[in-house]
Predict the 3D structure of the following.
Amino acid sequence: QVQLVESGGGLVQAGGSLRLSCAASGRTFSSYAMGWFRQAPGKEREFVAAISNSGADTYYADSVKGRFTVSRDNARATVYLQMSSLKPEDTAVYYCAASLLSSASKLKSGYRYWGQGTQVTVSS
């Protein structure tokens, strides 16, 4: 079992930045990949970013590439999502997710455990 707790969401103006954190407990953090997804009202949950267990491999959705950075600190059992140049269309509930595998995936089905989500609102 893995428990995930996100934090760092909030209200920010367009062009601003936020850093989301996701603290994990349970299984050995360095053994599994992590992902970030988001869900806007009335829309499907979509992939944002993912990182392999070691942090060597990262993946991004085209919509956030160049603006968001995913990283992890295995000693602190925490994964981060640094979001810059935020746009109103980035407004959503952001979820972190833990895989059972070491390699990262862009698919929701690639993740077994999910956090409760944190709201990010970008005003224009």
Notes: The two ends are 40 Å apart (CA to CA). The chain has a mean pLDDT of 97. The chain has no helices and eleven strands.
